[in-house]
């Protein structure tokens, strides 16, 4: 597959609303595989189609390398086509960053628990509940699909840049 270029902060595509995927065909599956490969090379935990320049409602979430998440990601990343949050609960504020905003981070409040409805790569409907960092990642990626970026939600006064030693 191919590694795609990550669109960064000044690219207007990041502010556009993505269109639903009507059918998961070979072209969509190729995009998904490219997104998975791209995410792996960038050492990230989430990626949405607009971040690679495609206005389609597709998100990839993967904490698979982290031992505490093996029960969720044991077989690889979660591929979410046409994802939507159908329920949320609680709130937690943590440091957040984004591949499209390199070297920036800030404190963002997100739901502590979400129930997400989406289609998997085979087109099957999935409804799953996620908590903590996985819930945060889904919220972040679904925001991208709606033209919202994390800096829109950063708590005032907490947006920072990584020192060269931190990134």
Key descriptive features of the protein:
three-stranded antiparallel beta sheet, globular, 167 residues, Peptide Deformylase, 8 strands, 3 helices, alpha+beta
Structural class: alpha+beta
* Intertermini distance: 27 Å
The CATH fourth-level homologous superfamily of the domain at 12-89 and 116-149: Peptide deformylase
Largest sheet: 5 strands, antiparallel
> What share of residues are in beta strands?
25-35%
CATH arch. level architecture of the domain at 12-89 and 116-149: Alpha-Beta Complex
Helical coverage, percent range: 10-25%
Strand segment count: 8
Taken from the alpha-carbon principal axes, the silhouette is: globular
Q: Gyration radius, to the nearest Å?
A: 15 Å
Strand order within the widest sheet? 1-2-3-6-7
CATH class type of the domain at 12-89 and 116-149 = Alpha Beta
* CATH topology description of the domain at 12-89 and 116-149: Peptide Deformylase
N-to-C series of helices and strands: HEEHEEEEEHE
